Amino acid sequence: MSKLAVAILAGGKSSRMGMDKAFLKIKDSYFIQIIAKELTSIAGSMVAVIGEKSPEIFTEVLEKNIIAIKDNYKLANPMGGMMTAFDYFDKKEDYVAIVACDLPLVKKELILRLHDIAVGHDAAVPVWDNGDLEPLCAVYSVKKGLESGKKMLQSGIIGCRNLVKAMNDVRYVAAEELKDVDKELSSFRNINTKKDYEQLVAKIQKSPKL
Questions:
Q1: Around 18, how many Cα atoms within 13 Å sit in the side-chain half-sphere?
Q2: Is 0.85 surpassed by the pTM of this model?
Q3: CATH number assigned to the domain with residue range 4-206, chosen from the 4 options 3.40.50.150, 1.10.10.10, 3.90.550.10, 3.90.1710.10
Q4: pLDDT for 114-135, tens place per residue?
Q5: Strands, E, within the chain: which ranges?
Q6: Regarding beta strands 137-141 and 170-174, do their DSSP bridges make them parallel or antiparallel, or are they unpaired?
């Protein structure tokens, strides 16, 4: 089976939230801890891409086998974190799951399904009925992602969705088709604002199994 790595993107400024989303809490755990714990059993290796933040604040809360790495590209866009992950795993792993740190309800079963679909292709990326992509909860070929990203940068183009569209052999996976592994598609519930966070906490208090 093709090897799978995981990269949690945690380099954003969280300007709409007003505090670092990686360190928002559900009960007693930070978002980044929750995501790492959920995905550790399916990952051959795992990194947190932390932008220009201090590695120490991440190593204090993450397991020792999870490495915090700074963003090599400084694009002020998640594509920089993706490219940094592709760089790191180049010639080490075949495929990498890219997961944003504001997706605390991501399910390992969904990531495994995307990995199964991605093998032999450039990527497996969820897509909604209206055409919107979920590039930050997707699985990519490390080699093909790096190749496509470098070509984009040479052309002066940035953007994680643009990177997906620049790849030649992407398997687009209808979000509805993933409900058998994530009934409510909660893996895609991103927490961007204080209101999003308050609603999430309220829902978890009502449904503690989440």
A1: 5
A2: yes
A3: 3.90.550.10
A4: 999 999 999 999 999 999 999 9
A5: 4-9, 25-26, 29-30, 46-49, 66-69, 95-100, 123-127, 137-141, 170-174
A6: unpaired
